[in-house]
Design brief:
InterPro entries: AB_hydrolase_fold, PLipase/COase/thioEstase. Keywords: Hydrolase. The chain is 31% helix and 25% strand. It is built from five helices and eleven strands, in the order ββαβββββαβαββαβα. The strands form three sheets. Strands 1-3-2-8-9-10-11 form a seven-stranded mixed β-sheet, sandwiched between helices. A two-stranded antiparallel ribbon has the order 4-5. Helix 3 links the parallel strand 8 and strand 9. The radius of gyration is 15 Å and the shape is globular.
């Protein structure tokens, strides 16, 4: 997979950066720098093309996901992250997902997998309105989620679905509201404060 790895200060966690539709592995590097410049970075490019744009998994329409492809790509990405942890000598359980939009959605898929034990995630503008049958215990997970009050891609009901997905499985959730489907400086600063509490 196309990616960038930058080691952080010894013993510090690693951010796993997951871009939005049309982005690449360079998009969220400034965001990681703002959140904590001492953390390591593993930034990955999505492998699923859509009209010339990079995505992490295929969709059939706005908010309509190809669930078989989502499952395949989520498995592939999680395995890649584990390989990188072994290769670059960091604890995969201490890695922190930082995603925007499509990147947040693939992060949710990985967080819900039985063989994933991540402790923290920062999800900007997620949308995950999928009927789930799992009852995975996520009580060891802290999640920071930004949602848009006027997001054209995600309704308030969609936003509440994501929050409930985590809360119903025991996660501690910090909600932060913005206006649209966006990544604002204020939201990044709020995520930074949350990260260092």
């Amino acid at each position: 997979m196309e990616h960038i790895f930058k080691p952080g200060k010894k013993g510090m966690p690693v951010f796993v950066l997951l871009h939005g539709t049309g982005g690449d592995e360079r998009d969220l590097l400034p965001l990681a720098e703002m959140l904590d410049s001492e953390y390591g970075v593993l930034s990955v490019r999505g492998k699923e093309p859509e009209n010339g744009m990079n995505r992490f998994f295929r969709r059939t329409g706005m908010g309509q996901y190809d669930l078989e492809n989502l499952d395949f790509r989520g498995r592939e990405l999680l395995d890649f992250i584990k390989e990188q942890a072994e290769k670059n000598d960091f604890d995969v359980d201490d890695a922190i997902f930082v995603g925007f939009s499509n990147g947040s959605n693939i992060a949710i898929n990985m967080l819900l997998r039985d063989d994933a034990n991540f402790k923290r995630a920062i999800l900007f503008a997620p949308l995950y309105s999928i009927e789930l049958k799992d009852n995975k215990d996520l009580s060891g997970l802290d999640v920071f989620i930004t949602m848009g009050k006027n997001d054209p891609m995600a309704s308030l009901a969609d936003n509440n679905t994501v929050v409930e997905l985590f809360k119903s499985r025991g996660s501690r959730v910090k909600e932060y509201w913005v206006n649209g489907h966006e990544l604002t400086g204020e939201a990044v600063m709020a995520a930074k404060d949350w990260l260092h509490q």
